[in-house]
Amino acid sequence: MIIQDIIKEIEEFAPLNYAEDFDNVGLLVGDKTAVVTGALITLDTLEATVDEAISKNCNLIVSFHPIIFSGLKKITGKNYVERVVLKAIKNDIAIYAIHTALDNQYKGVNDMICEKIGLINREILIPKKNSIKKLLTFVPADDAEKVRKAIFDAGGGSIGNYDNCSFNVNGTGSFKGNTSSNPVIGERGSLHFEKETQIGITFPAHLEGNILNALFTSHPYEEVAYEITSLENSNQHLGMGMIGELEKPQEEKAFLKTIKSTFKTGCLRHSELLEKPIKKVAVLGGSGAFAIENAKKAGADVYITADLKYHDFYKAEKNIVLADIGHYESEQFTKNLLYSFLTKKFSNFALILAETNSNPIKYI
Fold this sequence. Notes:
It is built from 11 helices and 15 strands. The chain is of the alpha/beta class. It folds into 3 domains: 3-102 and 333-353, NIF3 (NGG1p interacting factor 3)-like (Udp-n-acetylmuramoylalanyl-d-glutamate--2,6- Diaminopimelate Ligase, Chain: A, domain 1); 109-125 and 240-325, NIF3 (NGG1p interacting factor 3)-like (Udp-n-acetylmuramoylalanyl-d-glutamate--2,6- Diaminopimelate Ligase, Chain: A, domain 1), CATH 3.40.1390.30; 132-233, 2-Layer Sandwich (Alpha-Beta Plaits), CATH 3.30.70. A 6-stranded mixed β-sheet has the order 5-10-12-13-14-11. A 5-stranded mixed β-sheet has the order 1-4-3-2-15, with helices on both faces. The longest helix is centred in the last third of the chain and has 12 residues, at 334-345.
């Protein structure tokens, strides 16, 4: 097995197309064609993580956070980032990071938090825009079913809880091939009219290559007429954060104490308590101050996230309880999520859950 085999499975689960623009995801260090001896699954890649990989004969580290976030102009070992990269290269260890591609995945980071809390009726808190595209194509009426099926099989036509979705309009198409053409229907140099079906199908943006390949291989024409447009529609199964409900309402302090225990945080900071039961809960792993207003608009009783600053807590405005459980604490189960996914895909391969604790924050 080579590194690319593992990358392929990860990116089918959490396509890199959906990572945020500011992020740095994918294979950061190493050769994707190298044979894998073992893969270490971790939240962060530190020097101690590379040492653990060496000791466990793993030449691939699958990390949630990217060790290289901004451009490196020199690699001299003057800081922890450069030292990690140097050590990895010296020991032929590849480093792959998934980060916000997994944040935006429906069954990703925030779903894992919801699972630990026990939330039901989960929905994406901030559905991602510009992640849905639409294909329009024109097919001879007799071939419409074959082309539709090929596009459906490639992943097109899924809308929320429905699949095989399309819109079809019958009409008449016209064309005249030049002297270099080789028409399947009609004759070269003659104007031809053909009964055609216009097929409209939406698809996830990351599947565009697959969709076009299915279209071209199933369509009978020498030249395929089609157009693709990006839609502003929100994707209800893709985006940042989640919101769900507790099966039974809980008293505020009791709920926060349970959260503190579940996520083993040394210090849970929160805004003013509102003396009302907690039922609806919004979550966003990592730095989530930007989504406070989204949580309020969604009607959440409490918003669980991390890295809130002093003035962020004022934004609660007696409408919501803001709870900061710590960055590491909110994302600590992410490596378990990746490990569980990969072990199902590669059951007979050396996949190891990292033991290195990468939390840089300590509590007294």
